[in-house]
Write a structure and sequence with these properties.
Blueprint: H1 3-8, H2 13-20, H3 24-41, H4 45-57, H5 61-68, H6 72-78, H7 87-96
Helix pairs in contact: 2-4, 3-4, 5-7
């Protein structure tokens, strides 16, 4: 099989990911892992990327902005890795994606 034939039958990682994230359970699991990593590291970059990926799977950032009641340009800035989103924006985004945050007890 030639490289051209292989590429014809290959899906890019991003295409495969976006397709998988159209399933709400896949999206939930993906966001949970990103949130766990954010909690462990204190870094929000991975969580913001995961939110962008799920938004892409659900029709794009423009559609998400409309559902969340946020300005599209503002939402792009909020989801950029240079941003530290406010809790109200984060909650609006998560809700507009069809999810909600829950708390678990941990031993201190």
């Amino acid at each position: 099989m030639t490289k051209k034939q292989v590429l014809k039958h290959t899906v890019s990682y991003e295409e495969g990911l976006i397709k998988a994230l159209k399933d709400p359970e896949e999206a939930r699991a993906y966001l949970e892992v990103a949130l766990d990593e954010c909690e462990a590291s204190g870094e929000t970059d991975g969580l913001l990327l995961a939110l962008r990926d799920v938004a892409q799977a659900q029709g794009g950032v423009g559609a998400l902005a409309e559902r969340a009641g946020l300005n599209r340009e503002h939402l792009y800035r909020v989801l950029s890795s240079r941003s530290k989103p406010k809790l109200d924006n984060l909650m609006a985004i998560i809700s507009a994606l069809g999810f909600r945050l829950r708390l678990d007890c941990i031993k201190l």
